[in-house]
Amino acid sequence: MNQHRRRSSAQQRIRKRAVVATAFAATVALGTGVGVWALSGGGGGEPEGGARLPSGRASTADPSAPAASSVSPTPSRSYPLSQAPRTIPAVRSHTPAHGPGWKPQRGDRVVVDDAGLADEGRLIATELGLTYAGEKNDVRAGDVRLTLDGGGGNPESYTMTVRGGRVHISGPGEAGVFYGTRTLKQEVHGGGTAPEGVVRDEPAKPVRGFMLDIARKPFTESWIEDRIRELGDLKFNELGLHFSDDQAFRIESTSHPEIVAKDHLTKAQVRRIVAVAESRHITVVPEIDSPGHLGAVLAAHPDLQLRNASGVATRGAIDISKDASAKIVDDLLNEYAGLFPGGEWHLGGDEYQALAVKNPQASYPQLAAAARQAYGSGGTVADLTTGWLNDRADTVRAHGRTARAWNDGFYHSSSVQPAGDLQVAYWTGKEFGARQPVDYLSAGRKVLNYNDEFLYYVLGQPQTFVYPTGQRIYEQWTPRVLRGTTAVPARYDGQILGGSFAVWCDFAHAQTQEQVAAGIRMPLRATAQKLWDPGKPALSWVGFKKLADRLG
User: Fold this and answer.
1) Per residue in 294-350, pLDDT tens?
2) Which of 140, 368, 508, 542 is the most exposed place for a label (fewest CB within 10 A)?
3) pLDDT at residue 289 in the model
4) Which residues are within 8 A (CB) of 16 and not within 5 positions of it... i.e. 6 or more apart?
């Protein structure tokens, strides 16, 4: 709004107040019974919590108002200036107004301006007990209208206007409109009424994820779908599935059925999970970790097991000097590319035990020989391992995927450089030869925050892990805190795509899946808040927790 419009609006408000006050004084002088008069035209909000003021509550006339006898006002309610919606994550901007807000009533409609918003419209209609009326051009009292505004900008942004007894949610993309419906749902469920005014909202980070280890511990389809619904309401947009590890391979395979655990998800179940995720604008990101963490695959293919110079098997590690090793992993990557339609893929790349020994070349002479053959006389096992990661990135890139790998899969000692478009999933600084996050950022890489100090929920709390608390995330963590508790310089903020809260199931029986859901409830909400807006929250932790309890 320009300065001229601001001045004009202010002058209009002053004139309206003067007219109302004058009319009120005149009516009192005539002995007329007085109710409460409207303070402004156009309407605004209501008290926090959705409570409406009693219509018979009288106001006090301004004694300084000039007398007048010719104005006869129409009695109506008066509403205080609305307060910002209380949601998780909190909205970034709210312009308050006077008015009753919006509360769903029997017979109210959800209408859309574009057929592409039908799913969003049907969902919010069901959740609020409204009628989904489809594409409509007419306007009715109580309408919730969803619109694609056709403009540019962040496709996850939205504007929600509550005015005149109606709600209008618009955005440049379907995802943003969906997030607007999540705000509306929380407002109604938390307080009964959406406050009058205009919300303008968008996330600070494009990646807001939750990662689940289903390899070590099987989780049911219904449990996963329940978490997706929870994630959607909190405006997360990624679900990572780590479904292959030493303990088990947990998704049905047609290319290699021999590797699949008895307790697994069928492809039909995964398709349903993906469909629920897509309906909430959540991308499912699969992870087949290699060349380490392949114990379940190697149990069915012991000939591909990596062995040291003494013939001792190296746990979870595949022998990357063998062509058959690359073939079986690529078979799986190619197979599941058709099952997971999203644009992201996690290649793992961490904890390859051949590089955890003092002298990898001496301990694994077959790897050293393969490295020299591929990269010349100076080739090392680290070079060969980096080359393996690049080759797997080529495989998923051919399917139009963007690949990421754990930070300890990027080897400082390697003369072979990881592919430039590989994103860094930074989780730890505890490994041998650990590199600081700035090493990756200064090289221009895009980084995702999986900081194990704050975001790792490891069942059984092995080693130094403790269950993270929502309070600690809420009060101490931001996406720039990639390692430990210290933030990287602000100049790198644009390279940090976002982050992910992760559940790892090292001791699978330490908690039931119901206990996991309860344990991650507040950490998920705190993570959602800080990925949407990393600034200091307006609410204290106590207030935030009370809000979470109220929203359910």
Assistant:
1) 999 999 999 999 999 999 999 999 999 999 999 999 999 999 999 999 999 999 999
2) 542
3) 98
4) 39, 40, 41
Single out the residue in 147, 182, 201 at which a domain terminates. Answer: 201
Does the structure show a pLDDT above 90 at 422?
A: yes
Paired residues of 242 in beta bridges: 213, 287
Measure the CA–CA gap between 413 and 420, rounded to whole angstroms.
17
CA dihedral 39, 40, 45, 48 (to 10 degrees): -20
Decide if 53 contacts 13 (C-beta within 8 A).
no
Average pLDDT, the chain: 88
- Parallel/antiparallel/unpaired status of strands 207-213 and 238-244: parallel
131 and 238 housed in the same domain: no
Residue type for position 65 = A
Q: In what helix (H) or strand (E) does residue 233 lie, and over which residues does it extend?
A: helix 221-233
Check whether residue 294 and residue 395 sit in a common domain.
Answer: yes
What CATH number is associated with residue 153?
3.30.379.10
Q: Which two tokens stand for residue 462?
A: 């092995």
Average pLDDT over residues 519-545: 98
CB 297 within 8 A of CB 289: no
* Domain shared by 137 and 213, yes or no: no
Same domain assignment for residues 298 and 352: yes
**Does the residue 19 lie in any domain?**
no
Half-sphere exposure at residue 174, Cβ-oriented, CA atoms within 13 angstroms: 15
Report DSSP state, residue 461.
-
Distance CA 123, CA 119 (A): 6
Q: How many domains does the chain have?
A: 2
The DSSP code sequence of 391-440 is HHHHHHHTTTPEEEEEGGGS-TT-SSPPPTTPEEEE--S-STT---HHHH
Check residue 432 and give its pLDDT: 64
Residue numbers of the domain that contains 504: 207-551
CA 373 to chain centre: 44
pLDDT of residue 431: 66
* Catalytic positions, written as ranges: 351
425 shares a domain with 514: yes
Contact indicator for 239, 287 with CB cutoff of 8 Å: no
339 and 220, same structural domain? yes
Closest Cα to residue 102, out of 224, 201, 184, 176?
184
The per-residue pLDDT for range 205-251, each reduced to its tens digit, is 999 999 999 999 999 999 999 999 999 999 999 999 999 999 999 99
Q: What percent of the chain has pLDDT over 90?
A: 82
Highest mean pLDDT among 34-48, 267-281, 410-424: 267-281
Under the banding of pLDDT at 50, 70 and 90, the label for residue 57 is very low
The encoded tokens of residue 346 equal: 């996690």
Q: What is the dihedral of CA 133, 272, 517, 204, to 10 degrees?
A: -60
> Identity (one letter) of the amino acid at 246?
D
Going through 97-213 in order, the beta strands assigned E by DSSP cover 109-112, 131-135, 144-148, 158-163, 166-171, 197-201, 207-213
Contact 305, 260 (CB under 8 A): no
- The reply to whether 229 and 325 lie within a common domain is yes
